[in-house]
Design goal:
single chain, alpha+beta, Trna Endonuclease, Chain: A, domain 1, 2 domains, 6 helices, about 35% helix, about 20% strand, elongated
C-alpha cells in the first residue's frame, strides 16, 4: 500500500540535512506566521472555505516576502493531471501546491514544489516560481534543490551568502564543542572541522 508519509520523509530529510537549515523556519501542515495563516484560512483543497495547509511551509526570517510551499503525493500518477483534465488540488501534487500558492501570491513571492513517489531514486519533482501577482513559471530543475539554490532563484544571492556563512559558523561552533567533549586536542579539532567543511562542498559526501 502506498504511503504519502514516505514521500514527506524524503522532503523532510532533504531540507533538514541542508547546511542552511538553521537559517529557515520549517513547518509541517501549519504555520505560526499570522499573515500566511490569514491568507490560507479559506484554502481547503476540498473547496469548503475552511483553512488548508500544504505538507510543508518554509519561510526565511530575513526575507519576509518569500515563502516556499511543498505538496506531496505517494503515487507518481498523481503528480500532475493529464491534459484537458479538470484541475484537482486534492488528487494531484502540482494542482495542490499551486492551489495554495494562489492564496499567497498577492502578498508573497512563492516557490511551489510538488513531489511525488515512494522511492527516493524515482521521485518526480516540479518546481514553480510565482512572483507577487504573477502567473506561475515552471522551472527547468526537476529535483529538490538546496536552500541556497532556491534563494538564488529570487536573485537573493547576497542574502543567501550571508545565511550560508552564518549557518557554517553555527555548525563549526557546535562541531568544535562536540569534538572537545570527546577530549580531542584543539589543534586536531581545527584540522577536523576544516576538513569536514571542505568535504561538505561535495554533494555526495554531504
Amino acid at each position: 500500500m502506498l504511503n504519502e508519509r514516505i514521500t514527506e520523509d524524503f522532503v523532510r530529510t532533504h531540507f533538514k540535512n541542508d547546511s542552511m537549515f538553521r537559517s529557515i523556519k520549517f513547518e509541517e501542515q501549519k504555520t505560526s506566521n499570522k499573515y500566511i495563516k490569514e491568507l490560507l484560512k479559506k484554502a481547503s483543497k476540498k473547496g469548503t472555505g475552511k483553512r488548508g495547509y500544504p505538507e510543508f511551509i518554509i519561510t526565511i526570517p530575513s526575507i519576509i516576502d518569500l515563502v516556499i510551499l511543498v505538496e506531496c503525493k505517494s503515487e507518481i500518477k498523481h503528480h500532475i493531471n493529464k491534459k484537458n483534465e479538470e484541475i484537482n488540488p486534492q488528487k494531484y501534487a502540482v494542482d495542490g501546491v499551486l492551489h495554495y500558492a494562489k492564496y499567497l501570491k498577492k502578498d508573497f513571492n512563492v516557490i511551489a514544489i510538488a513531489v511525488s513517489g515512494e522511492r527516493e531514486d524515482k521521485l518526480i519533482v516540479s518546481n514553480f516560481l510565482l512572483r507577487k501577482n504573477s502567473k506561475e513559471k515552471e522551472l527547468s530543475d526537476k529535483k529538490l534543490l538546496s536552500i541556497y539554490d532556491y534563494l538564488n532563484i529570487f536573485e537573493e544571492k547576497e542574502i543567501a551568502e550571508k545565511l550560508k556563512d552564518q549557518s557554517l559558523l553555527i555548525f563549526s561552533s557546535e562541531l568544535n564543542q562536540e569534538l572537545y567533549n570527546y577530549s580531542i586536542p584543539e589543534n586536531e579539532r581545527a584540522t577536523i572541522v576544516s576538513g569536514i567543511l571542505i568535504a561538505l562542498q561535495n554533494e555526495n559526501f554531504r
